[in-house]
Amino acid sequence: MNDLLLLSEAQMRRIEPYFPLSHGIARVDDRRVFSGILFVNRNGLRWRDAPGAYGPHKTLYNRWKRWGEAGVFTRIMEGLAAVGAEPKTVMIDATYLKAHRTASSLRVKRGISAA
């Protein structure tokens, strides 16, 4: 199971303050569920294709939906970005942009209109 957890305990402690508080009912382990959400999104899977070690796929989806609507993921990203004192350059892999440019230029070369 430890190899399925995508965040270390230290990393999880950094983002825990951004999660909503539990309302009296003990929640399923946030670290496990968050790792499951990351795994599904990173690999482009359907929720039902998530490994069972992350918990029920319905739990992963419901938590992703609620946290997304509540702005949890946005707060995590903003909070982590604000941690550093000096601005940092963030590099993004251009693989998807490259594929898109190639695909769009093929239309022009072959005379296929985008209409």
From TrEMBL:
InterPro entries: IS402-like_dom (IPR025161), Transposase_6_like (IPR052909)
Top-level taxon in the UniProt lineage: Bacteria
Insertion element IS402-like domain boundaries: 7-77
Coiled coil: none
Pfam families: DUF4096
Protein name, per record: Transposase
Organism: Croceicoccus naphthovorans
UniProt lineage: Bacteria, Pseudomonadati, Pseudomonadota, Alphaproteobacteria, Sphingomonadales
